Amino acid sequence: MNMMRTAMLIAVMTALFMGVGYMLGGTGGMMIALAIAAAMNLFSYWNADKLVLRMHRAQEVDERNAPEYYGIVRDLAKNAGLPMPKVYIIDNAQPNAFATGRNPENAAVAATSGLLHALNEEEVAAVMAHELAHVQNRDTLIMTITATLAGAISMLGNFALFFGGGRNNNNPFGFIGILVAMIVAPFAAMLVQMAISRTREYSADRRGAEICGNPMWLASALRKIAMGAKRQVNVDAERNPATAHMFIINPLNGQRMDGLFSTHPNTENRIAALQAMAQEMGPTPQNWSNTQPESGAASGPWGARPTGSAGIRDKGDDGFKGPWS
Protein backbone atom coordinates (compact mmCIF):
# COMPACT_ATOMS: atom_id res chain seq x y z
CA MET A 1 0.00 0.00 0.00
CA ASN A 2 2.82 2.42 0.85
CA MET A 3 4.56 1.76 -2.48
CA MET A 4 1.29 2.35 -4.37
CA ARG A 5 0.71 5.56 -2.46
CA THR A 6 4.26 6.70 -3.17
CA ALA A 7 3.89 5.92 -6.89
CA MET A 8 0.68 7.94 -7.00
CA LEU A 9 2.31 10.89 -5.26
CA ILE A 10 5.25 10.86 -7.68
CA ALA A 11 2.76 10.80 -10.56
CA VAL A 12 1.03 13.82 -9.05
CA MET A 13 4.39 15.59 -8.74
CA THR A 14 5.23 14.89 -12.40
CA ALA A 15 1.80 16.03 -13.56
CA LEU A 16 2.14 19.18 -11.47
CA PHE A 17 5.49 19.97 -13.05
CA MET A 18 4.11 19.50 -16.56
CA GLY A 19 1.07 21.56 -15.60
CA VAL A 20 3.28 24.46 -14.55
CA GLY A 21 5.02 24.25 -17.91
CA TYR A 22 1.66 24.34 -19.68
CA MET A 23 0.49 27.36 -17.67
CA LEU A 24 3.63 29.27 -18.58
CA GLY A 25 4.02 28.24 -22.21
CA GLY A 26 1.11 26.15 -23.42
CA THR A 27 1.81 22.79 -25.05
CA GLY A 28 5.35 23.81 -25.94
CA GLY A 29 6.01 24.83 -22.37
CA MET A 30 4.69 21.51 -21.12
CA MET A 31 7.02 19.57 -23.42
CA ILE A 32 9.97 21.72 -22.38
CA ALA A 33 9.10 21.09 -18.72
CA LEU A 34 8.97 17.34 -19.40
CA ALA A 35 12.38 17.46 -21.06
CA ILE A 36 13.85 19.44 -18.15
CA ALA A 37 12.40 16.99 -15.64
CA ALA A 38 13.84 14.03 -17.53
CA ALA A 39 17.29 15.65 -17.74
CA MET A 40 17.31 16.62 -14.06
CA ASN A 41 16.21 13.17 -12.93
CA LEU A 42 18.83 11.52 -15.13
CA PHE A 43 21.53 13.72 -13.60
CA SER A 44 20.20 13.07 -10.09
CA TYR A 45 20.07 9.31 -10.70
CA TRP A 46 23.82 9.21 -11.31
CA ASN A 47 25.11 12.06 -9.13
CA ALA A 48 22.68 12.92 -6.31
CA ASP A 49 24.43 10.73 -3.74
CA LYS A 50 27.80 12.40 -4.34
CA LEU A 51 26.23 15.87 -4.19
CA VAL A 52 24.43 15.21 -0.90
CA LEU A 53 27.51 13.71 0.75
CA ARG A 54 29.57 16.68 -0.41
CA MET A 55 26.97 19.14 0.90
CA HIS A 56 27.30 17.65 4.36
CA ARG A 57 31.09 17.23 4.16
CA ALA A 58 30.88 13.50 4.79
CA GLN A 59 34.11 11.55 5.12
CA GLU A 60 34.27 7.93 4.01
CA VAL A 61 35.56 5.46 6.60
CA ASP A 62 36.40 1.77 6.65
CA GLU A 63 37.20 -1.00 9.11
CA ARG A 64 40.71 0.36 9.64
CA ASN A 65 39.77 3.83 10.91
CA ALA A 66 36.22 3.16 12.17
CA PRO A 67 36.18 -0.57 13.00
CA GLU A 68 33.18 -0.64 15.38
CA TYR A 69 30.91 1.60 13.34
CA TYR A 70 31.90 -0.06 10.06
CA GLY A 71 31.47 -3.51 11.59
CA ILE A 72 27.94 -2.74 12.73
CA VAL A 73 26.94 -1.63 9.22
CA ARG A 74 28.60 -4.73 7.73
CA ASP A 75 26.70 -7.09 10.05
CA LEU A 76 23.40 -5.30 9.45
CA ALA A 77 23.85 -5.41 5.68
CA LYS A 78 24.46 -9.15 5.97
CA ASN A 79 21.31 -9.54 8.09
CA ALA A 80 19.29 -7.65 5.47
CA GLY A 81 20.80 -9.52 2.52
CA LEU A 82 22.20 -6.29 1.08
CA PRO A 83 25.55 -5.50 -0.53
CA MET A 84 27.95 -3.64 1.75
CA PRO A 85 27.29 0.10 1.32
CA LYS A 86 29.90 2.80 1.57
CA VAL A 87 30.11 4.15 5.10
CA TYR A 88 30.55 7.82 5.99
CA ILE A 89 30.90 10.00 9.07
CA ILE A 90 29.74 13.62 9.12
CA ASP A 91 31.58 15.98 11.44
CA ASN A 92 28.49 17.45 13.10
CA ALA A 93 27.48 17.65 16.74
CA GLN A 94 23.79 17.04 15.98
CA PRO A 95 22.94 13.32 16.27
CA ASN A 96 21.49 12.23 12.93
CA ALA A 97 21.98 9.90 9.97
CA PHE A 98 20.84 9.36 6.39
CA ALA A 99 21.21 7.00 3.44
CA THR A 100 21.67 7.82 -0.22
CA GLY A 101 22.39 6.10 -3.52
CA ARG A 102 20.45 5.07 -6.61
CA ASN A 103 20.22 1.35 -5.71
CA PRO A 104 21.51 -1.17 -3.13
CA GLU A 105 24.62 -1.80 -5.23
CA ASN A 106 25.53 1.91 -5.14
CA ALA A 107 24.37 2.92 -1.69
CA ALA A 108 25.96 4.89 1.12
CA VAL A 109 25.02 5.41 4.75
CA ALA A 110 26.22 8.32 6.86
CA ALA A 111 26.09 9.06 10.57
CA THR A 112 27.10 12.24 12.32
CA SER A 113 29.85 12.30 14.93
CA GLY A 114 27.18 13.56 17.32
CA LEU A 115 25.16 10.38 16.81
CA LEU A 116 28.16 8.15 17.51
CA HIS A 117 28.84 10.06 20.73
CA ALA A 118 25.24 10.27 21.99
CA LEU A 119 23.95 6.75 21.29
CA ASN A 120 24.98 3.38 22.65
CA GLU A 121 25.91 0.44 20.45
CA GLU A 122 22.40 -1.02 20.17
CA GLU A 123 20.90 2.37 19.30
CA VAL A 124 23.55 3.01 16.64
CA ALA A 125 22.79 -0.42 15.18
CA ALA A 126 19.07 0.39 15.09
CA VAL A 127 19.63 3.73 13.36
CA MET A 128 21.86 2.20 10.71
CA ALA A 129 19.32 -0.60 10.23
CA HIS A 130 16.71 2.07 9.57
CA GLU A 131 18.97 3.62 6.93
CA LEU A 132 19.62 0.24 5.32
CA ALA A 133 15.85 -0.26 5.23
CA HIS A 134 15.62 2.89 3.12
CA VAL A 135 18.22 1.39 0.79
CA GLN A 136 16.38 -1.93 0.60
CA ASN A 137 13.04 -0.23 -0.04
CA ARG A 138 14.59 1.95 -2.80
CA ASP A 139 13.52 5.04 -0.85
CA THR A 140 16.80 6.78 -1.62
CA LEU A 141 15.97 6.81 -5.33
CA ILE A 142 12.33 7.76 -4.72
CA MET A 143 13.28 10.68 -2.52
CA THR A 144 15.90 11.84 -5.01
CA ILE A 145 13.29 11.96 -7.77
CA THR A 146 10.74 13.81 -5.66
CA ALA A 147 13.30 16.28 -4.37
CA THR A 148 14.46 16.95 -7.93
CA LEU A 149 10.91 17.50 -9.20
CA ALA A 150 10.06 19.72 -6.23
CA GLY A 151 13.18 21.78 -6.87
CA ALA A 152 12.37 22.06 -10.56
CA ILE A 153 8.81 23.22 -9.84
CA SER A 154 10.13 25.85 -7.46
CA MET A 155 12.64 26.93 -10.09
CA LEU A 156 9.86 27.40 -12.65
CA GLY A 157 7.89 29.32 -10.05
CA ASN A 158 10.83 31.65 -9.42
CA PHE A 159 11.09 32.39 -13.14
CA ALA A 160 7.34 32.53 -13.75
CA LEU A 161 7.31 36.27 -14.42
CA PHE A 162 10.17 35.95 -16.88
CA PHE A 163 8.64 33.05 -18.80
CA GLY A 164 4.99 34.00 -18.52
CA GLY A 165 4.91 37.78 -18.23
CA GLY A 166 4.81 40.56 -20.75
CA ARG A 167 3.23 39.86 -24.12
CA ASN A 168 3.91 36.16 -24.23
CA ASN A 169 0.87 34.81 -26.04
CA ASN A 170 1.96 31.21 -25.36
CA ASN A 171 0.65 31.55 -21.80
CA PRO A 172 -2.99 30.34 -22.06
CA PHE A 173 -3.94 31.40 -18.53
CA GLY A 174 -2.50 34.89 -18.38
CA PHE A 175 -1.89 36.38 -14.97
CA ILE A 176 -3.75 33.53 -13.19
CA GLY A 177 -1.33 31.01 -14.71
CA ILE A 178 1.65 33.07 -13.56
CA LEU A 179 0.22 33.34 -10.05
CA VAL A 180 -0.36 29.57 -9.84
CA ALA A 181 3.17 28.89 -11.13
CA MET A 182 4.71 31.30 -8.64
CA ILE A 183 2.83 30.37 -5.46
CA VAL A 184 0.39 27.48 -5.65
CA ALA A 185 2.48 24.94 -7.59
CA PRO A 186 5.67 25.15 -5.44
CA PHE A 187 3.54 24.96 -2.29
CA ALA A 188 1.69 21.89 -3.60
CA ALA A 189 4.98 20.28 -4.63
CA MET A 190 6.33 20.82 -1.10
CA LEU A 191 3.28 19.13 0.41
CA VAL A 192 3.58 16.13 -1.92
CA GLN A 193 7.28 15.78 -1.15
CA MET A 194 6.57 15.85 2.58
CA ALA A 195 3.78 13.28 2.23
CA ILE A 196 6.14 10.89 0.46
CA SER A 197 8.87 11.42 3.06
CA ARG A 198 6.58 10.74 5.98
CA THR A 199 5.11 7.63 4.33
CA ARG A 200 8.55 6.11 3.80
CA GLU A 201 9.76 6.81 7.36
CA TYR A 202 7.17 4.53 8.95
CA SER A 203 8.08 1.72 6.54
CA ALA A 204 11.79 2.16 7.21
CA ASP A 205 11.20 2.15 10.98
CA ARG A 206 9.45 -1.19 10.79
CA ARG A 207 11.91 -2.82 8.41
CA GLY A 208 14.87 -1.38 10.33
CA ALA A 209 13.55 -2.91 13.54
CA GLU A 210 13.32 -6.27 11.78
CA ILE A 211 16.90 -6.00 10.52
CA CYS A 212 18.44 -5.15 13.91
CA GLY A 213 16.09 -7.47 15.79
CA ASN A 214 14.72 -5.12 18.45
CA PRO A 215 12.19 -2.30 17.83
CA MET A 216 12.92 -0.76 21.25
CA TRP A 217 16.51 0.01 20.27
CA LEU A 218 15.22 2.20 17.47
CA ALA A 219 12.53 3.74 19.71
CA SER A 220 15.21 4.73 22.22
CA ALA A 221 17.45 6.08 19.46
CA LEU A 222 14.67 8.20 17.97
CA ARG A 223 13.95 9.79 21.32
CA LYS A 224 17.62 10.69 21.87
CA ILE A 225 18.09 11.98 18.32
CA ALA A 226 14.95 14.12 18.49
CA MET A 227 16.14 15.70 21.74
CA GLY A 228 19.61 16.28 20.30
CA ALA A 229 18.23 17.82 17.10
CA LYS A 230 16.38 20.42 19.17
CA ARG A 231 19.51 21.36 21.09
CA GLN A 232 22.08 21.28 18.27
CA VAL A 233 21.80 23.35 15.08
CA ASN A 234 22.88 21.52 11.94
CA VAL A 235 24.39 24.37 9.93
CA ASP A 236 24.88 22.34 6.75
CA ALA A 237 21.26 21.15 6.81
CA GLU A 238 20.03 24.70 7.38
CA ARG A 239 22.01 25.77 4.32
CA ASN A 240 20.61 22.87 2.27
CA PRO A 241 17.02 22.39 3.53
CA ALA A 242 16.09 20.33 0.45
CA THR A 243 18.05 17.42 1.99
CA ALA A 244 16.17 17.50 5.32
CA HIS A 245 13.80 14.71 4.32
CA MET A 246 16.74 12.29 3.97
CA PHE A 247 17.66 12.31 7.67
CA ILE A 248 16.16 9.92 10.21
CA ILE A 249 14.96 12.94 12.24
CA ASN A 250 14.30 16.37 10.75
CA PRO A 251 17.61 18.24 11.17
CA LEU A 252 16.08 21.69 10.73
CA ASN A 253 15.59 23.72 13.86
CA GLY A 254 11.97 24.19 14.98
CA GLN A 255 10.32 21.40 12.97
CA ARG A 256 8.53 19.62 15.80
CA MET A 257 4.93 18.96 14.83
CA ASP A 258 3.29 16.22 12.81
CA GLY A 259 1.55 18.71 10.53
CA LEU A 260 1.45 19.68 6.88
CA PHE A 261 4.82 21.40 7.04
CA SER A 262 6.83 18.61 8.67
CA THR A 263 9.08 16.40 6.54
CA HIS A 264 8.92 13.65 9.17
CA PRO A 265 6.17 12.00 11.21
CA ASN A 266 5.87 13.01 14.83
CA THR A 267 8.60 11.21 16.78
CA GLU A 268 6.23 10.08 19.52
CA ASN A 269 3.95 8.51 16.90
CA ARG A 270 6.92 6.61 15.46
CA ILE A 271 7.96 5.44 18.92
CA ALA A 272 4.41 4.27 19.67
CA ALA A 273 4.38 2.24 16.45
CA LEU A 274 7.70 0.62 17.39
CA GLN A 275 6.45 -0.17 20.88
CA ALA A 276 3.40 -1.88 19.38
CA MET A 277 5.71 -3.82 17.07
CA ALA A 278 7.85 -4.91 20.04
CA GLN A 279 4.77 -6.30 21.77
CA GLU A 280 3.88 -8.25 18.62
CA MET A 281 7.40 -9.70 18.35
CA GLY A 282 7.60 -10.81 22.00
CA PRO A 283 10.99 -11.33 23.73
CA THR A 284 13.85 -9.67 21.82
CA PRO A 285 17.64 -9.59 22.25
CA GLN A 286 18.89 -7.25 24.96
CA ASN A 287 22.41 -6.81 23.59
CA TRP A 288 23.59 -6.18 20.06
CA SER A 289 26.59 -8.48 20.46
CA ASN A 290 24.21 -11.35 21.26
CA THR A 291 22.72 -10.99 17.77
CA GLN A 292 26.19 -11.05 16.15
CA PRO A 293 28.05 -14.05 17.59
CA GLU A 294 30.46 -14.22 14.66
CA SER A 295 31.64 -10.62 14.96
CA GLY A 296 32.11 -10.53 18.72
CA ALA A 297 31.23 -7.68 21.03
CA ALA A 298 32.25 -4.28 19.79
CA SER A 299 33.90 -1.75 22.04
CA GLY A 300 35.04 1.59 20.61
CA PRO A 301 32.63 4.46 21.25
CA TRP A 302 30.11 2.11 22.89
CA GLY A 303 32.37 0.34 25.37
CA ALA A 304 35.65 0.85 27.24
CA ARG A 305 37.82 3.47 25.52
CA PRO A 306 40.39 6.12 26.34
CA THR A 307 38.98 9.29 27.93
CA GLY A 308 38.02 11.91 25.36
CA SER A 309 38.26 9.54 22.40
CA ALA A 310 35.74 9.46 19.62
CA GLY A 311 36.13 5.74 19.01
CA ILE A 312 37.32 6.33 15.45
CA ARG A 313 40.86 5.50 14.42
CA ASP A 314 42.84 7.48 11.90
CA LYS A 315 44.59 5.37 9.26
CA GLY A 316 47.99 4.29 10.48
CA ASP A 317 47.34 5.56 14.02
CA ASP A 318 47.25 3.21 16.98
CA GLY A 319 45.39 5.76 19.09
CA PHE A 320 41.80 6.97 18.95
CA LYS A 321 41.22 10.15 17.04
CA GLY A 322 38.12 11.23 15.11
CA PRO A 323 38.06 13.09 11.79
CA TRP A 324 36.16 15.89 13.58
CA SER A 325 38.86 16.40 16.25
Automatic annotation (TrEMBL):
Binding site for Zn(2+): 130, 134, 201
Ranges of Polar residues composition bias in the record: 284-294
Keywords, in A-Z order: Cell membrane, Hydrolase, Membrane, Metal-binding, Metalloprotease, Protease, Transmembrane, Transmembrane helix, Zinc
Xref: InterPro entries: HtpX_protease, Pept_M48_protease_HtpX, Peptidase_M48
Region (Disordered): 282-325
EC number(s) stated in the UniProt entry for this protein: 3.4.24.-
Protein's cellular compartments: Cell membrane
Cofactor(s) needed by this chain: Zn(2+)
UniProt membrane topology term: Multi-pass membrane protein
Free-text cofactor note: Binds 1 zinc ion per subunit.
Basic and acidic residues bias: start-end ranges: 312-325
Domain Peptidase M48: 71-277
Molecular function GO terms recorded: metalloendopeptidase activity; zinc ion binding
Active site per UniProt: 131
Family per similarity comment: Belongs to the peptidase M48B family.
Protein name, as recorded: Protease HtpX homolog
Organism: Nitratireductor basaltis
Gene designation per UniProt: htpX
